[in-house]
Amino acid sequence: MESQTTAKSVQDYPRALVLASTTDAAADDLCVDLLSRERPECQRVLSLSYARQPMRLVDHWQAAHDSSPASMAIVCPESHATREPPAGVHTTHVPASDLTGASIAISRYLDRWDDGESVTVCLNSLTALLQYADRDRVFRFVHTITSRCLAVGATVHAHFDPATQDEQTVATVATLFDTVVRREDDESWVVQQ
Fold this sequence. Notes:
Strand order of the largest sheet: 4-3-2-5-6-1-7-8
Distance between the termini: 22 Å
CATH topology: Rossmann fold
Structural class: alpha/beta
Strand content: 15-25%
CATH architecture: 3-Layer(aba) Sandwich
Number of domains: 1
């Protein structure tokens, strides 16, 4: 319930950065709530999934909504393909270190869905991306994706574990977003604008 309230408090911001541990289950709940801008049958969901198995997102979405979104696409490394997704869920596999390939895949989905329907995007997680590329490359990648989302009217949120990076890196990445949602003491969400 708290994640739904938090998601509503940031709904006017098209770009949100979620600062929480990668193992925090509440961050997964918030993720689904941030992706759920419309009724499921009207919603298009796109996820870059480096930190979570694609089917975990599908299962979490279906548990929250008892149905699938109108369209769902997941861009992820091949190593994350544990089982075939259900009908209507599209997966695109890219090498983990290929941020250009991931950017192209995301842009193709955004172009395909640029028809006025609601599109929400999740980047999960920037922490994982930093294992494959340096801070400057990840920054440019996130800037490209968030700008592309804004251009087509899609909302985007990204997950980042602040405990894994220095404060300067977290502050630098935060400049790309309209709002920051931070997990405090594993108890509650704090929204900063």
